[in-house]
Design brief:
Layout (H helix, E strand, L loop, with lengths): L11 E2 L11 E10 L3 H8 L3 E4 L7 E9 L4 H7 L5 E9 L4 E9 L5 E8 L8 H11 L6 E15 L4 E12 L4 E4 L2 E8 L7 H8 L9 H9 L9 H12 L1
Parallel strand pairs: 1-3
Antiparallel strand pairs: 2-7, 2-11, 3-8, 4-5, 4-8, 5-6, 6-7, 8-9, 9-10, 9-11
Amino acid sequence: MNIQSYLGKFNTVSLSDIKSVTLMNRVDIKFAFSIQKLPAVINDLAEYYNLLEVDGNKIQEYKSLYYDTVDRIFFLQHHNDRVNRNKVRFREYVGSGLVFLEVKLKNNKKKTIKKRIKVDSVENYLSKQNQDYIDALLGKELDLRPQHWINFNRITFADKLSKERLTIDLDLTFSNNIKSGSFEDVVIAEIKQDRHAKSSNFTRIAKKKHILPIRLSKYCMSTISLNPSVKQNRFKKKVLFMNKLKSK
């Protein structure tokens, strides 16, 4: 499917234009749906959203290497529905050539707080400087190891009137040193707001397309796919849902 062909009707904005909606401290709402619905969804967005364009590219490539402990403490925090849970990753923004070490916290108020520092490249081990940065944010020392890559393409929109960013991720693949997999037929959309607002245009459009919000983690779903023996009983419905979307 040539998604580029559906993006021509949008007014475009630059990275500097949307600095005010970077939203490093935010409320997230995710949606997952079959890629077959994407053209109709995009068609309805143009009236309400501007499209991010970077160096002439309307779709940006992202590569992320996630870190966790050997016993996957971050995965289990999410699985067990812990408040104040974390994720650690290196993320490469391929089009802009930028790489960051990012630490995400989902707190007990359901807000996502992202802290990051610019680094030269993705590391297959943590330097002392980067380990110290992570330890300071987490408030404890953890022996973190690289777990797996998650790569995808992202389309980013900014609401024309409100402080809201919408991302649409597609062509999602993941791999470790042993296995690989994909959710290439699945689209993951995410609304990012400074506070929860029921009036989001995307929420209204999605509801019209029978697309409902879902609490979903790319890291957790890919961890299960690459490591089927991990604890996953609380994720079974989500795994079935994702597999159903893949089979459509």
